[in-house]
Specification:
Strand order of the largest sheet: 1-4-5-6-7-8-9
CATH topology of the largest domain: TIM Barrel
Helix content: 40-55%
Bound molecules: methionine, zinc ion
Number of helices: 25
Number of domains: 2
GO molecular function: 5-methyltetrahydropteroyltriglutamate-homocysteine S-methyltransferase activity
Cofactor: Zn(2+)
Largest sheet: 7 strands, parallel
Pfam family, one: Meth_synt_1
Family: Belongs to the vitamin-B12 independent methionine synthase family.
CATH architecture of the largest domain: Alpha-Beta Barrel
Radius of gyration: 27 Å
CATH class of the largest domain: Alpha Beta
EC number: 2.1.1.14
Number of strands: 18
Length: 713
């Protein structure tokens, strides 16, 4: 038998994105949006059936997010949203008068879910309309399906409310009864939280939940799907409950040593997290090692994390294309593996290409101690106290975006585009000089994206045409694919930064993306450990640092906003990760001379959770998000010994902060850090803002910094 745990839903050409945005902008009706949703679901079921998949999932579609859908299913809609015109999208995106619910990363993926708001007063009541409607809709098209729902333990753990387990199990039981009444044979309850470190009390909750749901008389058979890692201690707990099937991630996790008697194992041997073809020999060996009553071949997790199909990628080299598998191709692999398993046959396909040599990890990353560097930089840069700077990008104008699209389409000459980029740099530099900022940037007008731009200029990366994956809601990204050894054939950013520096007497900060972030926001290769790939990227960035320095840049920023993202889910594996991630960063930056000031920038990365690692980066100046996380960050960084710039301007909002407001934030910072170490900067890059917003806001930032400087004498 064969199945998949979930499927992409944004549409092969991002149809859902367009339908959502048109509805939100008032250009189409709710009904038109619903119709597009129905078309996408029908197309998915038809395709899965055509590919020969045995058991089809349903309820994997969502207009925004599956965790939000589960909150609605359980009636957990906070009161303030209930009277909104469209409560669902009000929770997801906010309205004029209402802030949206919080959003955060789904385990260690780049997908973001909406965090349900569950308090002691939340009343749970079942609203099973959506899964029931999808079951009926599929049936009308001739498909029996297995509805997929986020399971109670994961739902509550993500909501920080596991103490409400008793109360939530009632609606889950009602749901199972409703599905049984509908004639549904199987239901899938997703429990990825079971692959994280669980306390004994949390394991008790797993046992209680599935003993209770398993004991119901009128219910479909239950598949508890775990993914993103090994179940560890949760496996024997689940195995002892009456659930009929357990989904195991056999790409990241191990084949259980003990037999799972009486159970079906849904064996995830085709990775839902990468873009590579599965080695059929290894997959079959794992499938044959599983001891259970029945084995169903599956993906390691939902395929929502990979693009639709490689068929649309006609620009990729045939050799690379032959190694790739996106969602459709992975479904075909699952079907083929199920056939081979049933026939007891050997696979016909040979092994993949030989692995590349691992780089040496030992090259020492040595800069002088910070006080020595700080003195050299002070003499060289001559900056005032509380120096002002920005994070790198300036507003990306519509003209620039259009021009980039025209170059890609061959409608605009490369030279004309470059002239436009230069004009943008001139403008950004002029604006910064007029505002009186101390350390300038060139504004990153040449970059469509902080990772993709580097991917396009490094060997070993490929960029797709339609390889979109959902990041959140209507937001999609097109991660580059790392497919070979990474090398920098020629300088990437040097001419832009050097041009900006030629326009001003003030220091310009060269702007690079760090090795961990480049790899975290790409699809990684599968034939080399990730730390080796990061190490190769670090060496390429080090060459860029050296060339920027040689071109006369005295300040260089290497951004690592994704440092926290690759953090392993299990605590035991985290120290080793942080150690090599930090080592890679130092490898990228240690080539800099003492008098060159190295900056780094981190945002949405809960800086307080990885502060020791941030310290380990050994950057001369670190700028972090703080306008929104506020006090917590300041408490955490209190007494930090090198340059630090907690953001004083929240760039995620169009609002212009007043000089007084910025002054108050700075004063709070000066309570926990010595004035010699404090930098004044926004939370993040300015590329999503407009020039009028940016000029007004940065004007107030500079004013506030100047006022405080005076009081410091
Ligand atoms: C997500 S962090 C962004 C950093 C980048 N240098 C920018 O300013 O846009
Ligand atoms: Zn940022």
């Amino acid at each position: 038998m064969s199945t998949v745990l979930g499927y992409p839903r944004i549409g092969p050409r991002r149809e859902l994105k367009r339908a959502l945005e048109s509805y939100w902008d008032g250009r189409s009706t709710r009904r038109e949006l619903e119709e597009e949703g129905a078309r996408l679901r029908a197309a998915t079921w038809r395709r899965l059936a055509e590919l020969g998949l045995g058991e089809l999932p349903s309820n994997t579609f969502s207009f925004y997010d599956q965790v939000l859908d589960t909150a609605v299913l359980l009636g957990a809609v906070p009161e303030r949203y209930q009277t909104a015109e469209d409560p669902y999208f009000a929770m997801a995106r906010g309205t004029d008068g209402l802030a949206p619910l919080r959003m955060t990363k789904w385990f260690d993926t780049n997908y973001h879910y909406i965090v349900p708001e569950i308090g002691p007063e939340t009343v749970f009541t079942l609203d099973a309309a959506k899964p029931l409607a999808e079951v009926r809709e599929a049936r009308a098209l001739g498909h029996e399906t297995r509805p997929v729902i986020v399971g109670p333990v994961t739902f509550l753990l993500l909501s920080g409310a596991l103490d409400r387990l008793e109360d939530v199990l009632g609606p889950y039981a009602d749901l199972l009864a409703a599905l049984a009444a509908e004639g549904v044979a199987w239901v899938q309850l997703d429990e990825p939280a079971l692959v994280t470190d669980l306390t004994p009390a949390q394991l008790d909750a797993v046992r209680a939940a599935y003993d209770r749901l398993g004991a119901l008389s009128a219910r479909p058979r239950i598949l508890v799907a775990s993914y993103f890692g090994d179940l560890g201690a949760a496996l024997p707990v689940l195995a002892a409950t009456p659930v009929e099937a357990i989904g195991l991630d056999l790409v990241r996790g191990r084949v259980p040593e003990t037999p799972l008697d009486g159970k079906t194992v849904v064996a995830g041997v085709v990775s839902g997290r990468d873009v590579w073809r599965t080695d059929p020999g290894r997959a079959l060996a794992r499938l044959r090692a599983v001891r259970a009553d029945r084995v169903v071949v599956s993906t390691s997790c939902s395929l929502q994390h990979v693009p639709y199909s490689t068929a649309a990628e006609d620009d990729l080299a045939p050799e690379l294309l032959s190694r790739l598998a996106f969602a459709e191709e992975k479904v075909a692999e699952v079907v083929e593996l199920a056939r081979l398993l049933a026939e007891g046959a050997a696979p016909a396909v040979p092994e993949g290409p030989a692995a590349a040599a691992a780089p040496d990890h030992v090259r020492p990353a040595a800069r002088s101690p910070y006080p020595v560097r700080a003195a050299a930089q002070a003499g060289h840069l001559n900056l005032p106290k509380l120096p002002t700077t920005t994070i790198g990008s300036f507003p990306q104008t519509g003209e620039l975006r259009r021009a980039r699209a025209e170059v890609a389409a061959g409608k605009l000459a490369e030279g004309d585009y470059e002239a436009l980029v230069r004009r943008e740099i001139e403008h950004a530099v002029q604006v910064q000089e007029d505002l009186g900022l101390d350390v300038l940037v060139h504004g990153e007008p040449e970059r469509n994206d902080m990772v993709q731009y580097f991917a396009e200029h490094l060997d070993g990366f490929a960029v797709t045409k339609h390889g979109w994956v959902q990041s959140y809601g209507s937001r999609c990204t097109r991660p580059p694919i790392i497919h070979g050894d990474v090398r920098r054939p020629e300088p990437i950013t040097v001419r832009w930064a050097a041009y900006a520096q030629s326009l001003t007497g003030r220091p310009v900060k060269g702007m690079l993306t760090g090795p961990v972030t480049i790899v975290a926001w790409s699809f990684d290769r599968d034939d080399l450990p990730v730390r080796d790939v990061v190490c190769q990227v670090a060496d390429a960035i080090a060459e860029e640092v050296r060339d920027l320095e040689a071109a006369g840049l005295s300040v260089i920023q290497v951004d690592e906003p994704a440092l926290r993202e690759l953090l392993p889910l299990r605590a035991a594996e985290q120290p080793a990760y942080l150690e090599w991630a930090v080592a890679a960063y130092r490898r990228a930056t240690a080539v800099a001379a003492d008098r060159t000031q190295i900056h780094t920038h981190l945002c949405y990365s809960d800086a307080d959770q990885i502060l020791a690692a941030i310290d380990g980066l050994d950057a001369d100046v670190t700028t972090i998000e703080s306008a929104r996380s506020g006090r917590r960050i300041l408490d955490a960084v209190s007494g930090y010994s090198r340059g630090l710039g907690p953001g004083v301007y929240d760039i995620h909002s169009p609002r212009v902060p007043s000089a007084e407001e910025v002054g108050e934030r700075l004063a709070a910072t000066l309570k926990v850090l010595p004035a010699e170490r404090v930098w004044v900067n926004p939370d993040c890059g300015l590329k999503t803002r407009t020039y009028p917003q940016v000029e007004a806001s940065l004007g107030n930032v500079v004013t506030a910094a100047r006022r405080l400087r005076e009081t410091l004498g």
